[in-house]
Description:
Layout: E1 12-16, H1 22-35, E2 39-41, H2 43-46, H3 53-61, E3 67-72, H4 80-96, E4 99-104, E5 120-121, H5 126-141, H6 154-158, H7 167-183, H8 191-200, H9 205-217, E6 221-226, E7 229-235, H10 237-247, H11 251-264, H12 272-280, H13 284-296, E8 300-305, E9 309-315
Parallel strand pairs: 1-2, 1-3, 3-4, 4-5
Antiparallel strand pairs: 6-7, 8-9
Amino acid sequence: MTDVSPPVQHPKAFLSHASEDKAEFTEPLARDLARLGVDPWLDKWEIRPGDSLVQKLFDEGLAHADAVVVVVSRHSVTKAWVREELDQGMVARIERGTRLIPVRLDDVEVPAPLRHLVWHTAERSLEGIAKAAQEIADALHGTPRKPSIGAIPTYAHASAQIPGLAPADAFLLTLAIQAAIDTGRPQLLDWATVEQKAQEAGLVGANLHESTTALAEQDYLDIRFLGERVSRANLTSYGYSTGIQALMPDIDEGRRRVTALLVNDPPTGDRVMHDLADRANVPLLVVRELLEELKLRGLLSYSLTMGDHTRLHSVSPTLRREV
């Protein structure tokens, strides 16, 4: 099948300059522009013996240019031809929208007609020429300077909504809750793992430290810092109750199942906490915190020994009202 795609239209740039700048700056600039997909109009390449200067410069060069690149230097500011080309470029800009791009050399003053435009200051070096060519090519190709916008970080859209907390803070709190669920304890959290998961979700560096500090200041976490590093992290009671509700919206139903078991079919043996977690299908952390809460309220008595061995001693009849 024959390819009928239209030919690529390269933007055309007319290079207005003084002859003294041609070899050192303008011709290398034109070559770099050609390499970058811009069709440069340079008098040395376009005008041959016997050609009409006026016809070539104004009727062919300037008339069909998408941009007029004016090399402003200590040489060109005094040249009548450059001023004529500039005047023609100004007319083309007004009539056809031709772009005028001043390139300033030698720290000379930019001519008054160009001062309202953004100009590029260049150096007379290979690096300076390459940089100027790239700036001009980017302008003619419409290459955006603004970086592309990446995906929203995971922590910003995956976190639970917790009133009063920024999304990053809420996300970090849910990671802390999950770390407590994994170990069954709200104390001595595996903070290295929490930080690793936060960083994998895009919460890094100063932002991670800021969220950690914010949670500590608002009494969600009990943090001990060593410099800027967290040496110890515990969930506070407030942090647990707020975070577990966000991470497990059905937590109240789970607590009711545990309470019903305590009232109607209290477990025996020395693994009461694990038994309740298995039978009620809730995390061990939820059972641990509920038992401690009920103990503080005088609704039951239990003992906890090394290795999470738990014995239930008594359950108050008043607890039945919690079911």
